[in-house]
Amino acid sequence: MGGYHPGSTPRIRAILKVTLPAPQEASSAAAPPARDAARDPGLEAALIQNLAWSAAVCLTLGAILWLIPGVPLAVVLALVLGAAPGLLAQLLRWRDREGLRLMVIAAWALAGAGAASLTGGVAGPLAAWVAAPLACAIAFDRRKAVSGGAALSIVALAVSLWATLAAKTQAPAAPVSIWLGVLGIGSVTASFAAALTVVLRRRADRTDIAEASLGRLESLLAEQPHLIMTLDTAGKVASAFGAAPQGLPPEILFSQGLIGAAHHPDRPALQTAILRAATHGEAEVSFTPRAALDRQAAISLRRLDDGRLIGVLRDASVQHAREAALDAARAEAEALNAGKSRFLANMSHELRTPLNAVIGFSDIMRQRLFGPIPDRYAEYAQLIHESGGHLLDLINDVLDMAKIEAERYELHKEVFDARDPVSAALRLVRLQAHEADIALRGVLPTEAVSIDADRRALKQIVLNLLSNALKFTPAGGQITVSLMAQGEMLELVVADTGVGLAPEDLQRIGRPFEQAGDAGSRALGTGLGLSLVRAFAQLHGGEMTIESTLGEGTAVTVRLPVVIGSENGGRQGAQIIPLDARR
Amino acid sequence: MMSKKVLIVEDNELNMKLFHDLLDAQGYETLQTREGLQALALARTHRPDLILMDIQLPEISGLEVTKWLKEDDDLSHIPVVAVTAFAMKGDEERIRDGGCEAYISKPISVSHFLDTVRRYLG
After folding, report:
1. For residues A357 and A351, what is the distance between their CA atoms, to the nearest angstrom?
2. First CA to last CA distance, chain A
């Protein structure tokens, strides 16, 4: 029905197996339980047939007893036996069990054999009843039951034969015999006819259901939005269902194959994807249809058990356009960012050139290099020189950040004692701290800590953290710098008793050009200090963390995996003293 | 005894004045040019004892001029001290590899500048 076929019938079963692995589960979950007797029409028919048999036997018994005097006891017994299994079968209405069904069939064997043996055996009028178990089993429509019923019928036949040959039984007299004969042949014939009718109808129903679900699956395949196809490893398409993307109508796919339907430049990629699906089981690829060069199609390929491939082909033009737009936006953003970094680098250079004159001439003056000047002028020259130096620091920060952002900063690693740049930085700010009435404490290891790192970067880290701490710590406060080595990790902590940071500022801080607080409360600075510390730490494969409480202080910790040998640490390692031994 | 001669190659007027004033105060004679190409001619004519070379010149890189100087057998003995506002990592090596004897970064520290100059002028 809804599929596209290249002439012959589609190999739909393979598709169904792969794409819809759960129809049986689904139908069994939806259908009522099969053991429910009331809802099993086949069983219902079998039970009616059983009941009808018993009713016919009872009617015959009544008629014989009423019309014919002196009916032999054996005949009465035979008819009672013949009526019993049909009544027993009615138990299945309440409890339908496989075992009970077999019991009913066995009861039919017993009744058939008994009744026949009581009325003259195989030569008697009820000989046909040996076939009763088979008729009942067919009515139950179970393969196992049918073979069991047939076996029991043969047993019943054997018993009747034995009774006849051993002359243990005798056929009743003529009128009774005729009644019984009619009953025997009639009941068995009617039973077989009824059972076969029921069974054949059920078979037909099942075929109808199967065909209907096949039809539903086909229409499902035909109406789903992608084109589902089977193909071989050469890209030849065997069948296709569903909606074809623009530029890839099934006729083209059938006549030219998947690869032939693609735009030339995309064919190798498609070929590769097909081979990969054939060898690895799955692959995905996008390509441009040859018949619609402005479109983009995508196919997902999977390998089937029999080695063929199944492909789901869909139009990916919109997705492709979106991805292309995203790529373009990203490239543009990156270009902008690179441009910004280049601009900053150039700006820094342009700013340094006039600074050379500012710093140089003021340096000459404050040193009174060319002769005496009044003290006040010398002081001004000193201030100009210091401001120039401050400006230079800021420009250096900007330059470093620009280089880091442009990914052009190269670490110049060397082996040195980590304490050197830390004490150098402490020396540089000691005077400043003293003037601001801030206690500056350095806690450094007593032994050298050899590290492999960029010396300038480490000094910059300490200086930036110290200068931040100085900015945000009020008079009377304290700044502690501690350095320690733990394994290969160098840990530097700069802790102050300053204004601290609000939690929302902690989030922002450390990003370029961000400072804590509102504009009014901000200290002088570019906001680059912490960004640089973080960037330098990351360049070393380390990290920077900030802990802060508003109004109490801030501790910035930098961890760098750069220690190559700590004499102190080594000795400590050899001298681990268990806790309890210390007491 | 003749005073030592220093050739200053520098395109910024203020910096030129700064370097000249400092050297002049130390009793050195200075030759000045803002162009790299002219620097080569001046060096040939006046045979300075030291060349202060700005690396970022408008038309030609100071490194290029230094290369020519070092390739010239008559001039290669003259020490070249690079003065530049480039302060990137690797610049120093680049400048030394280019044949410069020393490197002073801008902005200068006056004492460091004079120390360096004195080292090459004796």
Report:
1. 11
2. 90
Buried b (16+ CB within 10 A) or exposed e, A525-555: bbbbbbbbbbbbbebbebebebebeeeebbb
**CA atoms A389, A394, A399, A404: torsion sign:** positive
* CA gap A465, A459 in Å, rounded: 10
Taking CA–CA distances from A353, the nearest residue in chain B reads B85
A6 cis-preceded (ω within 30 degrees of 0): no
Look-up of token digits 């089981």: A281
- Residue A325, burial from CB neighbour count under 10 angstroms (0-12, 13-18, 19+): exposed
Cα distances from A435 to residues A379, A438, B93, in angstroms, run 17, 8, 39
AA letter at A230: T
How many percent of chain B have pLDDT more than 90?
Answer: 51
- Residue A460 makes CB contacts below 8 A (sequence gap 6+) with A400, A532, A533, A536
Closest CA to A552 of A468, A481, A496: A496
Residue-level length of chain B:
122
Q: What is the DSSP letter of A128?
A: G
Closest CA to A523 of A461, A460, A470: A470
Q: Which of A133-147, A340-354, A492-506 has the lowest mean pLDDT?
A: A340-354
Using the structure block, give the residue that is written with the tokens 């393969």. Answer: A143
Mean pLDDT of A323-338: 87
In this predicted structure, what is the pLDDT of residue A24? 44
Give the model confidence (pLDDT) of A115-126 as tens digits. Answer: 888 888 888 888
Judge whether A300 and A316 are in contact, CB under 8 Å.
no
By a Cβ cutoff of 8 Å, what residues of chain A touch chain B? 349, 352-361, 363-364, 367, 369-370, 388, 392, 396, 399, 403, 408-410, 412, 456
**Taking a C-beta distance cutoff of 8 angstroms, is the pair B33, B7 a contact?**
yes
The answer to whether B88 contacts A403, with C-beta atoms less than 8 Å apart, is yes
Cβ pair B21:A370 closer than 8 A: yes
Cβ-based contacts of B25 with chain A (< 8 Å): 369-370
Position A375 scores a pLDDT of 93
Closest CB to A349: pick one of B15, B85, B89.
B85
- Give the closest residue to B19 by CA, choosing from B122, B107, B103: B107
Encode pLDDT of B42-91 as tens digits: 999 999 999 999 988 888 888 889 999 999 899 999 999 998 876 555 66
Q: Which two tokens stand for residue B23?
A: 């050297």
Least confident of A131-145, A266-280, A410-424, A509-523: A509-523
Per residue in A391-420, is it b (16+ CB within 10 Å) or e — as a string?
bbbbbbbbbbbbbbbbeebeeeeeebbbbe
Integer angstrom CA distances of residue A554 from A220, A438, A550, B115: 65, 15, 8, 42
CB neighbours of B99 closer than 8 A, spacing ≥ 6? Answer: B66, B67, B69, B70, B80
DSSP code string of B42-85: HHHHH--SEEEEES--SSS-HHHHHHHHHHSTTTTTS-EEEEES
The ipTM, to two decimals, is 0.82
